[in-house]
């Protein structure tokens, strides 16, 4: 039986990947951070909480990484843990550099010293491209031009992965994944912020939705399909880097329009622009060319934009309806503080 270690198993991708690997017959180990309030709702939601072997790891602590690798003895490591919110990276640029960037070296150093046969997946991102292009599609050859502390940290992780591959022969790959969403997406990300607000507005639980830059365009795919690529990349004969995307870009404005349409409401009556949600620097446009993944991995996106929006809105509606009926089940929203009450430098301006 193969053994996999997933860092960040409590996050969106970590939870879906754990489910996927369990279904493939893997023994799955997942790292989590010790928090004063437990954060296992996604694993509970997918019904796999008791099937994943949990190991406490903080990415700033190399000894905990060493302990996790020694304990799990993995064939494959999927490094997904990160400070993944671009907005927060402007508020915490140093911690983001440490956790989303330098930690990649911490893990690869342990791999190199303990067992260089372990295969390694690095969660790279379309944010690497930044404002490299304002049209066309981005592929593995397009130059990177990061536009946030998060993207700069990920650029460091991207190159570290390639350096350990070339210098030490470690099977280390970068998945350059474009935005991927789901009902398990964190509420601070724009898609889930919208789907959750649409559900609450439709049920009379909320009156408005305040957003930042409505003109930015993103290539949004469906997370459960994207985690399959992570596994596929580690099953190839040679390590390589791949773009994973849908090949379509839509604006935040279009996402709003589509989401409100699903509940029969006009988005313009509820959405307002609030400069507190604008970033000091934003990425205007991202659209990915997944042809290399299609040719070499045999992967193609199955869920496109409209279907994705529908899945998210319907699931948030279903949750709030169950909540109104007094049901108690694993879910992030009831405990999530209102963004508006969180004071940060960007929000104060
Ligand atoms: P996510 O939901 O934010 O999950 C991030 C995970 O990292 C969580 O398990 C989190 O733990 C953990 N983590 C954060 N700080 C940590 C620390 N100091 N020590 C240990 N663990 C820590 O992110 P995601 O959407 O699943 O994304 C997975 C990875 O792919 C990330 O590296 C992200 O940057 C990258 N990525 C995401 C996308 C996307 O569209 N989703 C696209 C490209 C790349 P807690 O649960 O305790 O917070
Ligand atoms: O923002 C705009 C915002 O926070 C998307 C992460 O998974 O994908 C994600 O990063 C766009 C930006 O995702 C609001 O300015 C407008 O232009 O949902 P997001 P992201 O920054 O693209 C990449 C691939 C990753 O790697 C990251 O880890 O939406 N926007 N109004 C807003 N964004 C947020 N969050 N909230 C708003 O109110």
UniProtKB/TrEMBL annotation:
It holds the Pfam family GDP_Man_Dehyd. This is GDP-mannose 4,6-dehydratase. CDD domains: GDP_MD_SDR_e (cd05260). The lineage of its organism: Archaea, Methanobacteriati, Methanobacteriota, Archaeoglobi, Archaeoglobales. It is an enzyme of class 4 (lyase). Its EC number is 4.2.1.47. Residues 5-312 form the NAD(P)-binding domain. It catalyses: GDP-alpha-D-mannose = GDP-4-dehydro-alpha-D-rhamnose + H2O. Its cofactor is NADP(+). Belongs to the NAD(P)-dependent epimerase/dehydratase family. GDP-mannose 4,6-dehydratase subfamily. The keyword NADP applies. Catalyzes the conversion of GDP-D-mannose to GDP-4-dehydro-6-deoxy-D-mannose. The keyword Lyase applies. Keywords: Lyase, NADP.
């Amino acid at each position: 039986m193969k053994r996999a270690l997933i860092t960040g198993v409590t996050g969106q991708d970590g939870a879906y990947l754990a489910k996927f690997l369990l279904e493939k017959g893997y023994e799955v180990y997942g790292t989590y951070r010790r928090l004063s309030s437990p954060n296992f709702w996604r694993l509970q939601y997918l019904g796999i909480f008791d099937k994943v072997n949990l190991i406490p790891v903080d990415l700033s602590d190399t000894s905990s990484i060493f302990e996790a690798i020694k304990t799990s003895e993995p064939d494959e490591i999927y490094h997904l843990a990160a400070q993944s919110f671009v907005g927060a990276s402007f508020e915490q640029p140093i911690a983001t550099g440490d956790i989303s960037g330098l930690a990649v070296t911490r893990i690869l150093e342990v791999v190199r010293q303990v067992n260089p046969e372990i295969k390694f997946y690095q969660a790279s991102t379309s944010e690497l491209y930044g404002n490299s292009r304002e049209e066309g599609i981005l592929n593995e050859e397009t130059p990177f031009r990061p536009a946030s502390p998060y993207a700069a940290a990920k650029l460091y992780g991207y190159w570290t992965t390639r350096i350990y591959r070339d210098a030490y022969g470690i099977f280390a790959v970068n998945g350059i994944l474009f935005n991927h969403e789901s009902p398990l997406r964190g509420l601070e990300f724009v898609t889930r912020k919208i789907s959750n607000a649409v559900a609450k507005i439709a049920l009379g639980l909320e009156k408005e939705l305040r957003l930042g830059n409505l003109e930015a365009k993103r290539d949004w795919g469906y997370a459960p399909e994207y985690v399959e690529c992570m596994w596929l990349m580690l099953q190839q004969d040679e390590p390589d880097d791949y773009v994973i995307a849908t090949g379509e870009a839509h604006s935040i404005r279009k996402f709003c329009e589509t989401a409100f349409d699903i509940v029969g409401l006009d988005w313009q009556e509820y959405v307002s622009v609030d400069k507190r949600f604008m970033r000091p620097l934003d990425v205007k446009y991202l659209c990915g060319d997944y042809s290399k993944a299609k040719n070499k991995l045999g992967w193609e996106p199955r869920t496109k934009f409209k279907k994705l929006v529908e899945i998210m809105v319907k699931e948030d509606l279903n949750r709030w309806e169950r909540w109104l009926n007094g049901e108690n089940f694993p879910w992030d929203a009831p405990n999530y503080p209102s963004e508006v009450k969180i004071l940060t430098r960007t929000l104060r301006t």
